[in-house]
Design a protein that fits this description.
The model has no long low-confidence stretch (mean pLDDT 96). A four-stranded parallel sheet has the order 3-2-5-6. Strand 5, helix 6 and strand 6 form a beta-alpha-beta unit. The chain has one domain: 3-Layer(aba) Sandwich (Uracil-DNA Glycosylase, subunit E), CATH 3.40.470.10. By secondary structure, it is an alpha/beta fold. Helices cover 32% and strands 10% of the residues.
């Protein structure tokens, strides 16, 4: 069955993405073609825009990931998050939760689906919103970068002092969109790179310090 990406975009965001319907049509064609060819799209279609349940003016913090976990059982449309029943957790998420506990000095309040963060205004957005089961970076050549740039532009327009947590090069490419004094960056939490600057970077306490400078309540991580 052919699916239509546009109809999956939450209504408040359709206004923001209206000028990018050509890019979305190109992505839509590629995803449908891949599916016809037997590939499994990750996340499932209905979760591709799961991050956009937050309207632009609700976002306090942006955490940028790279692309979905290449496992159809893991991808839920939120960067770094997985279903709560997932065992074992992906290495990146294990390192995030490990750093979180070390940073704030107590076990984190959130579960693996990171819904607790989203409820407080944390946008968990990948720089590429889809891949296929069994393959990382399968869709990086699709024009997701232009769509994601517009999503970030809408967020920053609504909240110029939004805090950006940028882990790894794919995320850090978007640093120029944010106010320099509102960027928290480090190596990616992947097991391949976490020991190169992610572990010990204290991104969660730094983010809350920035929020409080703007007289905003910190995130209850």
């Amino acid at each position: 069955m052919t699916r239509d990406l546009w109809n999956l975009i939450p209504e408040p965001w359709q206004i923001q993405l209206e000028d990018f319907r050509d890019e979305l049509a190109e992505i839509n064609f590629a995803l449908n073609s891949a599916q016809v060819g037997g590939e499994i799209i990750v996340p499932v279609w209905d979760h591709i825009f799961a991050a956009l349940t937050l309207a632009p003016d609700q976002v306090k913090v942006v955490i940028l990931g790279q692309d979905p976990y290449p496992n159809s059982d893991h991808g839920i449309g939120l960067a770094f998050a997985v279903p709560n029943e997932t065992k074992p957790l992906p290495g990146s998420l294990r390192n995030i939760l490990k750093e979180l506990e070390a940073d704030i000095g107590r076990p984190p309040q959130t579960s693996p689906d990171l819904a607790h963060w989203v409820a407080q205004g944390v946008l968990l957005l990948n720089t590429t919103l889809t891949t296929v089961h069994g393959a990382s970076n399968a869709h990086t050549k699709l024009p997701w970068d232009r769509v994601v740039a517009q999503i970030l532009t809408a967020v920053i327009t609504a909240n110029p002092k939004v805090v950006a947590i940028l882990w790894g090069k794919a995320a850090q490419n978007y640093a120029p969109y944010f106010a320099a004094e509102r960027v928290v960056d480090s190596a990616h939490p992947s097991p391949l790179s976490a020991h190169r600057g992610f572990l010990g970077s204290k991104p969660f306490s730094k983010t809350n310090e920035m929020l409080r400078l703007d007289h905003k309540e910190g995130i209850d991580w």
